[in-house]
Amino acid sequence: MKKIAVLPGDGIGPEIMAEAVKVLKALDLPLQLDWADVGGKAYETAGHPLPPATLKLAQEADAVLFGAVGDWKYDKLERSLRPEQAILGLRKALGLFANFRPAICYEQLTHASSLKPELVAGLDILIIRELTGDIYFGQPRGRRTAVDGHFPGSEEGFDTMRYSRPEIERIAHVAFQAARKRNKRLTSVDKANVLETSQLWKDVVTEVHKDYPDVELDHMYVDNAAMQLVKAPKKFDVVVTGNMFGDILSDEAAMLTGSIGMLPSASLDVNNKGLYEPSHGSAPDIAGNGIANPLATILSAAMMLKFSLNMPEAAARIEAAVESVLAQGLRTADIWSEGTSKVTTLEMGDAVVKAI
Amino acid sequence: MKKIAVLPGDGIGPEIMAEAVKVLKALDLPLQLDWADVGGKAYETAGHPLPPATLKLAQEADAVLFGAVGDWKYDKLERSLRPEQAILGLRKALGLFANFRPAICYEQLTHASSLKPELVAGLDILIIRELTGDIYFGQPRGRRTAVDGHFPGSEEGFDTMRYSRPEIERIAHVAFQAARKRNKRLTSVDKANVLETSQLWKDVVTEVHKDYPDVELDHMYVDNAAMQLVKAPKKFDVVVTGNMFGDILSDEAAMLTGSIGMLPSASLDVNNKGLYEPSHGSAPDIAGNGIANPLATILSAAMMLKFSLNMPEAAARIEAAVESVLAQGLRTADIWSEGTSKVTTLEMGDAVVKAI
Ligand SMILES: CC(C)[C@H](C(=O)O)[C@@H](O)C(=O)O
Ligand SMILES: CC(C)[C@H](C(=O)O)[C@@H](O)C(=O)O
């Protein structure tokens, strides 16, 4: 019996999670699902976005299935109580350093992209983002009186970007291994022409490359990567980068596909225990309307079965079922186009179950 | 007599600069042009990418016209001697804190974009990037032995992100004033859900907004901005952001237009003295072939006349001449398409001169 912590969260989180759970149940696997509040919902019920009980559940589980957190109504709270602290807290507490964000353009959804169809048809990039280091967690940080710079004596905000050699090594190994299973090309993104942290990043990735001579490595500055993703996204295979640059580039890449409502993600620790969540956010503007696309969450559940629970056949069944509902022409509003059938969140979940 | 420091630099720099100078001379303005080496070229002739003589010339000039720097052949030099240190050094030494990067899609060049024509036709965004602060220049930075974090005792690279209140205030004023002259909408981009520096940024921009009640302000996280630029770029008017995020987003926005070879930029100090350069790089792969697009540099010269030299009529004449050569169907290779006439760098410069 494997234990799954199910954390629906805010906005459309509960709706899309209900469908993913429906799909998991249809597979009749040896899974025990335990639910808990997280994000704004948990702040309301327990006074904190990541209450101790939720954290404990996540720590004791074999994997975490996460919906989405955040709502404008919490914008006025102090930062430590805001919903997104839940996801940052989980990443840190569970040591989820390796974030896998595929940017895939499904054949039937090519039209949904902002890009010309020939640029995105068949797109399949994997962005691997380091998730527990960098300026997200570096100390010191805060506000203080500037002692140097342009305006000594004035108030300043500051943060510390940092990466240590072993942190870079472990994410580099993850990335080279992932590239090996794909088209054997890895692009490491940094800003080594300006940042010391990036120079170490580049040096260490270059060293780790010696263990993977069969993988082709190139280095790209982050500003150039942001451009090349727009210009010729299909030139990329696997991209590895730090937490901050990965935040920006993985969202840009996801949006290039035009169907971010389809994209799952995995965040893994050193033992492949992971947290799985859709790449999109909590979309409070459409929450409760039953129109959200549950497929990213359903595909996140498939990733979970594959990466953390060693149930690759069950994962493949979900993936095949998703392909099949797309082939049937079923579409939630976000990916709908002339000539396809618009369905609700619930109908989409039911269709996937039926296809299984 | 106004003094212009002309710094052609590396790669295609000399070729595109020759055309911009040709255009300036055709206008017969009271300008004195003084040339100097910069970047890799200066490293070769004087041992440093920004030699004292070049810096002095730039400091004494009323404006700097800059080509481009960088070439792979300098990749092995230590960072302080690499070509890009010239541009960082000039920004810092001249106090060029306000970088203007328009992302404009010329009607005749809509087809060159990766995006569907309806998403970019008529696009006209202005990205204002703070250019002398942030993690680019923050101290301390370097390598050291980690005392905390995930791997205490290991080597780490680190950098400091920082912004002081007056630094944010002055760039915010520049941005609100620019928005006032356009469609009165300003988007401030930060990562305040994670970074202390960003939270101060957001707070200060919100305060400065009180002086500009006629301008509509919204705040956007940088990951979301990277997505919205792809999804619906025309929703933006003016964007203001820090040095690091501005580096990434301004390049992404430029590439969205598909014609980065057309885009000028200005970097201004508190007195509107400025450095003007094309948004594209030194393109060493095509240097010397006479095929580079000189229009971004020619339009940078126009920006210089307008922003720093108070010669708006002359600037308008250049801009009209560029519109006219495009209307004539003249195109360098980067923007060429079926049915238009392919011209060389030199022919394009001549055509602009003729149109003046
Ligand atoms: C909510 C936020 C803190 C988070 C991040 O920046 O990592 C999100 O943007 C993401 O990418 O998961
Ligand atoms: C060359 C590099 C240091 C520079 C920067 O990062 O600012 C460049 O990318 C730019 O945007 O002008």
Automatic annotation (TrEMBL), chains A, B:
Q: Which residues bind NAD(+)?
A: 281-293
What function does the entry list? Catalyzes the oxidation of 3-carboxy-2-hydroxy-4-methylpentanoate (3-isopropylmalate) to 3-carboxy-4-methyl-2-oxopentanoate. The product decarboxylates to 4-methyl-2 oxopentanoate.
Q: What is the lineage of its organism?
A: Bacteria, Pseudomonadati, Pseudomonadota, Betaproteobacteria, Burkholderiales
Binding residue positions for substrate:
91, 101, 129, 223
User: Which protein, by its recorded name, is this?
Assistant: 3-isopropylmalate dehydrogenase
Which source organism does the UniProt entry give?
Answer: Roseateles asaccharophilus
Pathway, per UniProt? Answer: Amino-acid biosynthesis; L-leucine biosynthesis; L-leucine from 3-methyl-2-oxobutanoate: step 3/4
Q: Where is it mainly found?
A: cytoplasm
Q: Which HAMAP family does the record cross-reference, listed alphabetically?
A: LeuB_type1
The EC number of this protein is 1.1.1.85
Record-linked InterPro entries:
IsoCit/isopropylmalate_DH_CS, IsoPropMal-DH-like_dom, Isopropylmalate_DH
Q: Does the keyword Plastid apply?
A: no
